[in-house]
Design brief:
Helix content: over 70%
Distance between the termini: 8 Å
Structural class: mainly alpha
Strand content: under 5%
Largest sheet: none
Number of strands: 0
Length: about 400
């Protein structure tokens, strides 16, 4: 899109964003007294930075050439271990954690800066607001704290959706396949190419997953070793079911409702209704395909990510790293809405950002991460985004949504 005369250029907006990001980092540094303090106090359930990488990822990666079995807490295909072993598997755990955390911080910076410049131009206030809201959001900070993959997966999937929108089905499908091979649950995001009836993308995703989750690991571990690895993953998942079912960190809708009511048996009865609610995303995605021609990838990403807590039994806090894109699409759309709708959607947007923010966490709970998680504020934030998207799609139906602003 052409630059508006007198408005900041894209380069200037990026510089504004970088300045805002630096202020957010300074605030976090002051609040937690550096990275070690952040690891110790941001989520005291584990007082180490990159806790999941240190306890679960690195032992599996480092032992790939040894026993070739998954470590405790590894519930994924061997893809990540196979791809990172040449770089991280030879390092001691402290050095590997440092490298991993530096990569995570870089990805966090990209996630805080890049999306407002995709599929249309964001005004400076929207772009800077996005950066601040993302940098101080609990899901993104949880990724950094635990050393998880959710930010990387979000970037992968958003790149895939943009590729699909630009007619690059094979590339988009391959990126989705990589995401599925790394963590499995992104398989739900194949709903977007399915709604688009993009068979080539679905085939590319399936082939990529097959190669990265089965064939490549088989070359490293051998057929028997691969079967033993997946057998270990299944055993670990079976063992984890006991504590995971009612974990305060899970934002899975049936778990949250059962936790609130104090009846674990309710969780099982809500599995099917929760899945049926997830089906409600299909009309939203179909409407996006019809109404949004220049920025459908961002809208579809916000909705497809929003179904995770209805279907994914773990749905940990870091899974919600996709939320900022939902905030972005709603913020971009507000100026186009009539005043009454602008007020309604703006309220949903503001509440969603607030509930997912470090500010809300600190004001209500201080350092008590467990209490914040038990209240399921990120689930509320997700539901508000979905409601805002649905509201906007209804009131803009028939409008010229194809014209970039």
């Amino acid at each position: 899109m052409d630059e508006v005369e007198g408005a900041p250029t894209r380069t200037q907006i990026v510089l504004f964003q970088l300045g805002a990001l630096a202020l957010c980092v300074a605030l976090l540094w002051w609040l937690y007294e550096g990275p070690a303090g952040f690891g110790r106090w941001f989520d005291p359930v584990c007082k180490l930075l990159a806790c999941d990488y240190r306890r679960h990822f690195h032992p599996t990666i480092a032992d790939l050439a040894g026993s070739g079995l998954p470590g405790v807490g590894w519930f994924y295909p061997p893809t990540l271990a196979v791809l990172t072993w040449p770089f991280l598997g030879q390092l001691d755990v402290d050095t590997a954690v440092g490298v991993w955390t530096a990569c995570q911080a870089l990805l966090m910076g990209v996630w805080c800066i890049l999306p407002p410049h995709l599929a249309g131009r964001s005004e400076a206030p929207v772009a800077v607001g996005f950066t601040v809201a993302t940098a101080l959001s609990i899901p993104v900070l949880q990724v950094l704290k635990w050393g998880q993959l959710s930010t990387a997966l979000a970037l992968l999937v958003l790149a895939a959706f943009l590729a699909l929108d630009r007619g690059r089905s094979t590339r988009g499908g391959a990126l989705l396949g990589l995401a599925v091979a790394l963590k499995v649950y992104p398989v739900l995001l194949l709903v977007w190419p399915a709604v688009r009836r993009d068979v080539r993308a679905l085939v590319a995703a399936a082939v990529t997953t097959l190669v990265l989750a089965l064939l490549l690991p088989m070359l490293v571990l051998g057929p028997a070793g691969l079967m033993a690895f997946y057998g270990g993953v299944q055993a670990g998942m079976d063992e984890a079911q006991g504590w995971m079912r009612m974990s305060p960190g899970s934002h899975f809708v049936p778990t949250v409702v059962a936790r609130w009511w104090g009846h674990e048996a309710l969780r099982e009865r809500l599995l099917q209704p929760s899945a049926l609610l997830a089906v409600g995303a299909l009309p939203l995605l179909a409407a996006i395909r019809r109404q949004r021609t220049h920025d459908a990838a961002l809208w579809a990403f916000a909705v497809a990510g929003g179904i995770f807590p209805f279907l994914v039994a773990s749905s940990w806090l870091h899974y919600f790293a996709y939320l900022p894109v939902g905030w972005l699409v709603l913020a971009r759309e507000l100026p186009r809405l009539a005043p009454v709708h602008r007020a309604g959607v703006g309220t949903l947007l503001g509440a969603s950002v607030l509930f997912a923010s470090l500010i809300w966490h600190q004001v209500l709970y201080g350092a008590d991460a467990r209490a914040y998680a038990e209240a399921a504020w990120l689930l509320w934030s997700d539901l508000l985004v979905l409601a805002g998207v649905a509201w906007t799609l209804v009131v803009t139906r028939g409008a010229d949504a194809a014209t970039p602003r």
